[in-house]
Amino acid sequence: MRTTRTRTLLALAGAATALALAGATPAGAADSVLTTGGAGGDAVAVGDVLNASLAGGTAATLYSSATGTSGVSCGSSGFTATVTDNPAAPGTATESLTGQTFDASSCSSNVLGVTGVTGITVEHLPYATTVTSDGAVTVTPPAGSTIQTTVKLRTLLGSITCVYQAPSLNGTVDEDLNGIKFSQQHFTKVSGSSLCFANGYFTATYAPVTDTSQPGSPTVHVN
Q: What confidence tens digit (pLDDT) does each residue in 53-67 have?
């Protein structure tokens, strides 16, 4: 009798231990590079769509120099990306940047001779994007292509089109805002009139990044 009871207790203890270990496994697996519900929360699923607009009170700027304030400034901009890989942390998540927009009605220019901004278009999409656990963000174009932005301006002499290119963009994760920050990313003018500044330096903070594929569009965290 005692032997049978002892075996039963041992079996129950073994089952409880197995359940405890099983319960720990999903938590570790959910600790992916990209999560929702907080750091180390639920893993963002491959195929989910992420969106972000400019952080409140900030602007996206394309200035003619890294230290100047002459160029184009927009108060409304946003991006859309699809998650293509989200491994366990620490690691590198990948996304496909499928859209980046700028609301021309929110844009202005203080370049001499320029009276307004007609439009800003990001071309050669989609761009491959990587986000690492240590907060590094890299945006690259398709093989053999470039990151390209076309800026259309109104001037005293009529409309002009300025085309800028960059081989890639580097940003950082803003942990406080749960967003992505780009600072003075260099573009070179490849076509356009003399009123188009020769170099463009792009700065913007997009936050918060949200997972619009999930109910309530929860904020995305980087682990």
A: 999 999 999 999 999
Rounded Cα distance, 59 and 77, in Å: 8
Rg (CA), the chain: 24
DSSP state of 218: P
Give the residue from 104, 85, 62, 70 showing the smallest Cα distance to 200. Answer: 62
Burial 19-48 (b: 16+ CB within 10 A, else e): eeeeeeeeeeebbbbbbbeeeebbbbeeeb
Residue 109 has what DSSP assignment? E
Residue 57 vs residues 54, 60, 114, 178, 197: alpha-carbon distances, Å: 8, 11, 25, 15, 26
Q: H-helix or E-strand containing 58?
A: none
CB atoms near residue 8 (< 10 Å): 10
CA distances 72 to 30, 80, 123, 155, Å, are 42, 22, 18, 13
Backbone angles phi, psi at 10, to 5 degrees: -65, -40
Rounded to whole angstroms, how far apart are CA atoms 139 and 161?
Answer: 24
Distances (CA, A) of 171 to 51, 71, 89, 129, 199: 16, 21, 19, 10, 19
pLDDT tens digit string along 144-201? 999 999 999 999 989 999 999 999 999 999 999 999 999 999 999 999 998 899 999 9
Q: How far apart are CA 15 and CA 192, in angstroms?
A: 72
Provide the residue count of the chain: 223
